[in-house]
Design brief:
- It contains 3 helices and 15 strands.
- It is an alpha/beta fold.
- It has a 7-stranded mixed β-sheet with strand order 1-3-6-9-12-14-15, with no helix packed on it.
- The chain starts with 18 loop residues before the first strand and ends with a helix.
- The model has no long low-confidence stretch (mean pLDDT 94).
């Protein structure tokens, strides 16, 4: 049997600065799935304002493609917006202000990226955003709201351009969850996953799922 892909390898493309992210993670508040890659060397440097006392997590699924320059801005970047001034006196030397409670801060929760998501170059993901499976984020986009599965968004602020597929195929893909299959099975699925004949793909997905019941 040929050697199977290994998600614990850091550099899966010899000679290029492409890294599988999961084996590089050191922070407890970042979770990344198998085979998600970043087109660069230091993924954690792209996650900013991520302070453990906020309790928010960055959760990224499997098989995501994260281009160079993509930045995840976490909740620690937010300032108080319900008072007269947004200036953070409490973090700067010699200013007398008590640290506000988290309830006073605009904390928006975890940032969650689904599986098989393509994040284009220099895209910025704002705090608390949820991006669905199979979505595509255009380069230089600023994503401040949730993105539906298999939807293309672009711009600042990012807005939906179109769905990648019809609702039937999206539903089948969400049910099939190819990214959760064993690696050896995904190897056999590659011809299907790379087929642009979408009607054939629908039929094959239906056949495969009916065989499991």
């Amino acid at each position: 049997m040929d050697k199977l892909p290994d998600s614990s390898v850091i550099h899966p493309v010899p000679g290029f600065s492409v890294t599988y992210v999961k084996p590089t993670i050191t922070r407890p508040n970042i979770e990344v799935g198998d085979f998600t890659y970043y087109s660069g060397e230091n993924f954690e440097a792209q996650v900013t304002h991520h302070y453990e006392f906020y309790g928010d997590k960055l959760i990224i699924g499997k098989f995501c493609q994260i281009a160079e320059g993509v930045t995840f801005i976490m909740n620690g970047a937010n300032h108080m917006m319900n008072a007269v001034s947004t200036f953070p006196f409490y973090i700067l030397e010699n200013w007398e202000q008590d640290t506000p409670s988290l309830s006073e801060m605009p904390v928006k929760g975890d940032t969650i990226i689904g599986n098989d998501v393509w994040l284009g170059q220099n895209a910025t993901i704002l705090p608390g955003v949820h991006i669905g499976d199979g979505a595509i984020i255009g380069l230089n986009s600023v994503v401040g709201g949730d993105v539906e599965p298999y939807t293309i968004v672009a711009g600042n602020p990012a807005k939906p351009i179109r769905k990648r597929f019809d609702d039937e195929l999206i539903g089948l893909l969400e049910e099939f969850k190819w990214w959760d299959k064993p690696v050896y099975e995904i190897q056999t699925l590659i011809p299907l996953l790379s087929d642009s004949n979408l009607e054939l793909v629908k039929r094959e997905l239906k056949n495969r799922m009916s065989d499991t019941f």
